[in-house]
Design brief:
Elements lengths: L12 H22 L4 H24 L6 H21 L2 H10 L2 H35 L4 H36 L8 H28 L12 H36 L18 H7 L3 E9 L4 E7 L21 E9 L18
Antiparallel strand pairs: 1-2, 1-3
Length: about 350
Amino acid sequence: MSTPLLSLYFELSWSILSTIGAVNVILGFLIVGITTFSQITAVPIISSAAGAIANGLCYYAFYDETYSLKNKAAASVFGDIFWMIQEVGLSFYSYVLLRRILKDMGWKIFNTLFWIMVLSIISIRIMIAVSRAKFILRGNTNLQSTVNNLHIGYFVLIASLECISSFFLLKTFAEVKSTSLRAALKGGLFKYLMRSTEVRVATLALIGTMRAVTYSFQVAAQSATNAASQIDRFAYTLECLFPVVMFIDILASKLVFTTQVYHPTQPSRSPLRGFASYQKQNDWYAATQHSERLVEVRGGRRTSSQEDIISAGPSSSNIGLDGIEPTSLGGINKTVEISVWHSMPARPDNQAHFLTSP
């Protein structure tokens, strides 16, 4: 009687899913090099790393027969823990944003709902981990139906968690967008933030709903043996690729914000009446020295913008989603320093012509 061949790691889909997570971690550090390390960039990195570890442990728990049952059960439990970190961690992307822009009662309501649902998800995942460990140790196939039923509530809660986070994000961005004409930023930034939030909630809600339906038809533990389980594996692959959407969102928001800062909306006014004038070399030289411009934008129900010229000095720029700071106005606070440099004319003794406003 021939011995059944052991399934090699890279012959299974779990190796591919684990590789996707590892590559996402590398991409995350590249994004950190382009922008900066923050809580926003840490979310997809941690989620991807947890997914890579969980998929690797799944192979040892359910496919590698060289380990004892106790070791396989332990690998299964740790795999469930890392899967929970991967799947719940995706929702912390919205949580980090809302922690910076929500205030007072709005923040209390959201924070309470968020952690109630997170604790519920953790509780269900613990029950799933215990049921799988018993399944491995005892070989009781009846526990598979229990695991399937628990996964239905698990994925529904994950989809609902992202829907709640997106509701508060869209509500806040809509309020800021309505007052953006009075700020130094165009409304395009907030329109982009709203669209990116809609994409995230639509994708995660779709994945959560799809997995809640397809996982109920799971027959064998961690094996795609029928059409429903194969669709579930496809949905989970999309979930593993979702951090890429977050990386694109981080870079795109940085680009959009930079564009809005350097090309702000100017209020409409009548054309300036100009005239030609002459200025002494000393006056012209003083006017062409490098200066630094500080632009502060506050968005919310009560918005204001101010622009001050400060003395010359080292310039810096802090642009990106992580630059959103909490303010007493319950809106978005963004501070950007822009250095403007002027060069000396080739012949400063010549009189300079320029247009000005009376």
